[in-house]
Amino acid sequence: MTERKPDRQSGLLGGLQATTRAQGRGEPKIGVDEFMSVAERFGFSPATLAKIRAAAEAEDMGEGPFLANYYAKLPETKVQAMERVAREMFGVKYAIALSSGTGALHSAFVAAGVGPGTEVICPAIGFFATAAAVVQSNGVPIFCDVDESLHMDPTKIEALITPRTVAIAPTHVMGGVANMEAIVAVARKHNLRVVEDVAQSCGGTYKGKWVGTWGDLGCFSISAYKIVGGGEGGLLITDEERLWERANGLAECGGLWRPVRFAPPRYEGELYCGTNYRLSELEAAVDVVQLQRMPETVARFRAVKRQVLEGLKTYREITPQLLNDPDGEVGYRVRFSRKPSNWEPRS
Ligand SMILES: Cc1ncc(COP(=O)(O)O)c(C=O)c1O
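A: This is the predicted complex of the input protein with pyridoxal-5'-phosphate.
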């Protein structure tokens, strides 16, 4: 009897075999070393890092994570979770998680119709990014004076409105909140959009309503320096689908966000030249936890501020900053103005 040679076709006698699952240990593109690099950034001690590495190496990571919002084989990516939590937290229909507050403002202004030949009324005190995002959108910022609260003075807005004005962009500064009722009233009277810059006051409320939800679009910075934020990020919220779509267009390369990205425009003006302000999955993983903890963080700020103010009851030489809503402000700063004009030294 002649001995049969292994058959490379059939798998009989040691040839190739059909298999239903990948065999062997995965060597993912993003694996344990990348994970450890994140753990190091959290500042764990060398001993703890060694334990984490041992636990991570014991796990077969398969093909490893795909750290992007698109095409991830997950029920919900961290970016999607961030957007869901933002919608639930602020009670709005739409949220976009972005790479920075500046990106959120730029997307919001373009969504609101800012472009060549338009003007946006911005406060005289705030941060560079608000006016810069107007310029980035090819509009012109027009500065409105602030009142003693250091927020946009609603009584000074009307004098600045021209046929070119398309939006008013109040900034809530240093944990404070702007007088949104009065600002929105002026905007509605003149058919203008309101873009709120909430970068410094995430979690603040005016008359019991979150700042960021008074206007047409609310923009937050989710950077390390802010009330919510791990490293660098941003957030945009709105209740209007068309504003959300337009903001997404700017933030997502024109049309990447669409249900069928290569489809022709579904309405006139849907497609235009966008850019990329996508939030990274790693950043979103941190930010989504922080956003959920925001009410707790804000409550702590408020409690500490109350304590400080209670300890200052007897002063009379300085005036505390005017607050548009003392219960609604976040309260991580206590500010005073210089002595009032009727001030006299203590005898
Ligand atoms: C009022 C205000 N608007 C916008 C921004 C810009 O945010 P980001 O640094 O995330 O771009 C900041 C950041 O400091 C800010 O304070």
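Residues 31-60 form one domain. The mean pLDDT is 91.
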